[in-house]
Specification:
InterPro entries: PAP2/HPO (IPR000326), PAP2/HPO_sf (IPR036938). This is Membrane-associated phospholipid phosphatase. The chain is mainly alpha-helical. The protein has a single domain (7-184), classed as Vanadium-containing Chloroperoxidase, domain 1. The protein has 6 helices and 2 strands; from the N terminus they run H-H-H-H-H-H-E-E. The protein has helices spanning 7-26, 32-54, 58-82, 98-114, 116-135, 141-158, and strands at 167-173, 178-184. The chain has a two-stranded antiparallel sheet with strand order 1-2. The longest helix has 25 residues, at 58-82. The protein is elongated, with a radius of gyration of 20 Å.
């Protein structure tokens, strides 16, 4: 990713900042896990989109936006189509989990666009969000699993791997000859 800030360092700093913010803000409260899942609902897509914008990867930003829109449309459509009750009578429209689909769409975008070194921490946070929804008794395992599938699928439809250099020029020579090579990656 072209940027003055090393992407791995930025990713680590954002992860540390999230952990510090959620543990200090919600420490001692009864709903710590649920609240941190709620924070991730906004933090994950904001990080994915802002990170691509900071890196100057506008094609990636557009891919993220398309995947996000599809994810929201499918998730909300399924919620209204199935109208599944939430566990413990905590409301309606449980299937699929919107928190989980949103965070997994963000994680899948990060992983597919920028690689597994960024994707693994993102998937861990997305998985934690799914866990937080079960722990808060808002969803069961099927709701969370469906949210993860919808989110990952939405991201994978539009996201392509990031290529730093689309063109590569090479030159080689020996005692008798010269060689010039040109490669363009689509």
């Amino acid at each position: 990713m072209p940027s003055s800030i090393e992407p791995k360092i930025l990713c680590r700093k954002l992860l540390i900042l999230f952990i510090l913010a959620t543990t200090s803000i919600f420490y001692g409260q009864n709903k710590t896990i649920q609240n941190s899942g709620d924070v991730l609902l906004f933090a994950m897509p904001a990080t994915a989109l802002t990170g691509s914008l900071i890196a100057g990867d506008y094609e990636g930003s557009w891919q993220f936006a398309k995947g996000f829109a599809l994810n929201q449309a499918v998730t909300i459509g399924l919620k209204y189509a199935t109208d599944k009750k939430r566990p413990y009578n905590n409301g309606d429209r449980a299937f699929p989990s919107g928190h989980t689909s949103t965070t997994f769409q963000s994680a899948a975008f990060i992983q597919k666009r920028y690689g597994w070194s960024y994707g693994i921490p993102a998937y861990i946070l997305a998985g934690y969000t799914g866990y937080s929804r079960i722990e808060a008794q808002k969803h069961d395992g099927w709701d969370v699993l469906a949210g993860a599938v919808v989110g990952i699928g939405s991201a994978y439809i539009f996201t392509t791997p990031y290529q730093r250099e689309h063109m590569q020029l090479s030159f080689a020579n020996d005692a008798d000859s010269y060689s010039l090579g040109f490669v363009y990656k689509f």
